[in-house]
Amino acid sequence: MSPLSVIITIAAYFAILFTISYIAGRKADNEGFFVGNRKSSWYVVAFAMIGSAISGVTYVSVPGMVAVSGFGYLQMVLGFIAGQLIIAFVLVPLFYRMNLVSIYEYLENRFGMSSYRTGAWFFFISKMLGAAVRLFLVCLTLQLLVFEPFGLPFILNVAITVALVWLYTFRGGVKSLIWTDSLKTFCLVVSVVLCIGYIASDLNLSFTSMVSTIADSDMSRIFFFDDVNSKQYFFKQFLAGAFTMIAMTGLDQDMMQRNLSCKNFKDSQKNMITSVISQFFVILLFLMLGVLLYIFAANQQIEVAKGDELFPLIATGTYFPAIVGILFIIGLISSAYSAAGSALTALTTSFTVDILGTKGKAEEEVVKIRKRVHVGMAVIMGITIFVFNLLNNTSVIDAVYILASYTYGPILGLFAFGIFMKQQVRDKYIPLVAIASPVFCYILQKNSVTWFGGYQFSYELLIFNALFTFIGLCLLIKKDKKNN
């Protein structure tokens, strides 16, 4: 696929994206930017949420991971469904009842200012790192397809990419995100379905024979119950999926800002249940695509060094009509830019509301602060992507969940204690507990094979991180009024 055709494809997509963003956000005030004025229809949000949960990481890494882990990722996705139900029926009614703009305001009401700031800062670190990892992937692909052929440096690639994300989110915030995420969902589903169709056709497979070929492949194994020490063990993946969903959606301002834009909590629940079930089938399509890609690569004797390179290498090569490469680029940029845009909006919201504070400030003053923060978040994101490029040495999707295990654990522990325990704690010591918990988890992970007979931690490390935080908060419970 030529660099010029990639540029034309991206330009056409962004022309549509900017138009939708402008129309959706042309009358957005602070409430519209932060929570979409709480007037969004649940079915529109549900359709948008299908795409919002699927980043460029999913788009590229999930098809590539089937050679190593088969369809085992679906074990985690089943956990996602369980976690989403907990969010819908426990957290959503709570957040609506408290009329929150930022979900971390709950921590201030429950514990105090130190826990509030701790939750906001851990979200900031989590989301910034996660968004950088996701956008890093699309930057790598664009570097390969566009910037290297023109002899342009990676830092220019990052600057242009982040600037485009900033441009389409600075005006409308959440209102724009919901409609641009709807465009993303449409592009993702259409692109992956058509790519499956083209590859199956090249392999001379009808729909029935395609399904049987995938089902007969060793790469289509879903459940792993045989080795408790394996990272693929079912209960590790399922529980990690449930708690990851609770932490990375229910306790994440980025994801919850969409759910909180619905008219009421019942509409939000309808949206969440519909979207998570739909996501299961979309991810199944990605895994099916992965099997077909590996079969095609074997037939063509194509060597793939890393799973993340499989889909880009075949889709943008000379193996298929140009439309396949165009579909890949559209799917990639729609997933990656939309995910980065939502993260940038959430980071702006959280930093403005939670860390700088908006209480007592006039509407015009908040607008000025919000716009400056928005620029600052974009700059920090660009720097983080560039640094990650220097340090990257692992699968991108693996990196996302490893980072989540360390950074979302304290947030999960804080909310769990606040909801299920009634006692007050010594608020000023909460930051120490939140820092100590990931440190303990790191020690545990590095020594688990030696200490526990070969046991290897996977993404369930998030659960232990939250548990350490929960135990630490128990130690901070106020015994009596004299200790207040």
From TrEMBL:
The chain crosses the membrane at residues 6-25, 41-61, 73-96, 120-144, 150-170, 182-200, 233-251, 272-298, 310-333, 373-391, 397-417, 457-477. One of its GO terms (biological process) is sodium ion transport. It is a multi-pass membrane protein. The keyword Cell membrane applies. Keywords: Cell membrane, Ion transport, Membrane, Sodium, Sodium transport, Transmembrane, Transmembrane helix, Transport. CDD domains: SLC5sbd_NIS-like (cd10326). GO terms for cellular component: plasma membrane. It holds the Pfam family SSF. InterPro entries: Na/Glc_symporter_sf, Na/solute_symporter, Sodium:Solute_Symporter_SSF. It is found in: Cell membrane. It comes from the Bacteria. One of its GO terms (molecular function) is symporter activity. Belongs to the sodium:solute symporter (SSF) (TC 2.A.21) family. PANTHER family: INTEGRAL MEMBRANE TRANSPORT PROTEIN, SODIUM-COUPLED MONOCARBOXYLATE TRANSPORTER. This is Transporter, SSS family.
